[in-house]
């Protein structure tokens, strides 16, 4: 009987026919369990069908209930788990990736679409669940390339630009150039707009030799630039040393630090057994009919080399070994040779002090100073210029100072009569000012390009100090000259404080209020205070000046490359109005040699100027 009971326990269908109440209860329990299992299976089948439908189409579909008993509809085929495994694994790999990788994925999405996304939309688009990952959410919210308004994330570019007009306005705010890489993500078509602005002549796109990235410069329409053909030809005839060692030595002698160290590199090569090979000199070929000209739009580049040699005259540059920054130049034409030693060169200094109105706005002040500065572009002869707001209070209440240097008195006379300058005074200066004074005097400076033109690293910073003196007429000659000579000797004892100094007798016919003028370029405001506060200066002033001076006017203003206008136009002002005028006085051969050094100092200020120089 025990064996029969065991058989019935494993055969529920047989138990159904038993009449025992206990067996009926067991049968009912088994039927309920079977029904629950079938319902659970139907639910799982429905879920898999819904997932498969979503994966096949983006439109939501209403899952149909699985009704196997319905005779009119065939049963939906079962979805195997392996069909969606690859997509689920991809989502899982994204969400388990490092935070940085997930952030990049979201930023790429925002950059490509340029739309704002909620966390839920980001999850649907790129499977990054920012709500479930607090580290990703916080990093995304604090990312400088992402903006978050509390609900949505959006891409944030460095410059908020929308179209070409806003792009042009931004570029014009950066006269020293703006990196194109900072503009690339402003809006989708920004690169096309940059090329269109370049084609229209409104901006320059030049390469940066350090990073090989393009730099965008504004093309200022207020400054018409025309480079004479003679200057272009002179520039192209200059030949740099072939050996990098010579180039590095020349840079060091002119106060510049080379970016390379050829001597060290060659020494290391020899230590490791690598012999440095000098590049063979390429044979120069004459231009012939078979020569392929790649720059046919610049015919001046293809003039016969004999013309270049005849114009050059075989200029050789030899730098002196002394402490001074001067150079000894020797030029040879044919069989003749001559040496020109260092000396002094006469220059004419021009000072203009202005009394601006009290209600002068910053925009009006900038407009006035800009137009005064651009007068140098309209005439030759101006070889240096600085201007700015006077830093200290003075008894005459002058507010602004303009300093210019001319080559000759004749150039200064033409300057006073120049129509453009007279128009600037009439329309841009006098409406904002109620008084001005001129002081002109002749002086001497070191006969070298950098001191004459006040260019180079030493003149990029500092303080311009102007001292106007009115000596008693009875003291002209001996006492006055003795006092000025003592001041000049004292200045020579402070080379660490003073870059350059000039002084002389005022010969301006329209202004006789002051008899003499002194211009001193100090290296800093601290240098000015140290000099004027020194015991030596006070002793000379008390013993030499105080008894013979009727009145004085000391003023100073800062020369700062970060704000002064000279940096934006250094090469143009130096070359357009200065070197060409210098040729007539210094001679072609001598100026050619010195210009090689001078151009090294000024060309690197701004890549735009290279285009201006070449007449592009």
UniProtKB/TrEMBL annotation:
It comes from the Eukaryota. Residues 348-441, 463-557 form the Stress-response A/B barrel domain. Keywords: DNA-binding, Nucleus, Transcription, Transcription regulation. It is found in: Nucleus. Residues 56-77 are annotated as: Disordered. Residues 87-162 form the TFIIE beta domain. One of its GO terms (biological process) is transcription initiation at RNA polymerase II promoter. Coiled coil: none annotated. GO terms for cellular component: transcription factor TFIIE complex. The keyword Manganese does not apply. One of its GO terms (molecular function) is DNA binding. Pfam families: Dabb, TFA2_Winged_2. PANTHER family: TRANSCRIPTION INITIATION FACTOR IIE SUBUNIT BETA, TRANSCRIPTION INITIATION FACTOR IIE, BETA SUBUNIT. Recruits TFIIH to the initiation complex and stimulates the RNA polymerase II C-terminal domain kinase and DNA-dependent ATPase activities of TFIIH. Both TFIIH and TFIIE are required for promoter clearance by RNA polymerase. This is General transcription factor IIE subunit 2. It comes from Vitis vinifera (Grape). The gene is gtf2e2_1.
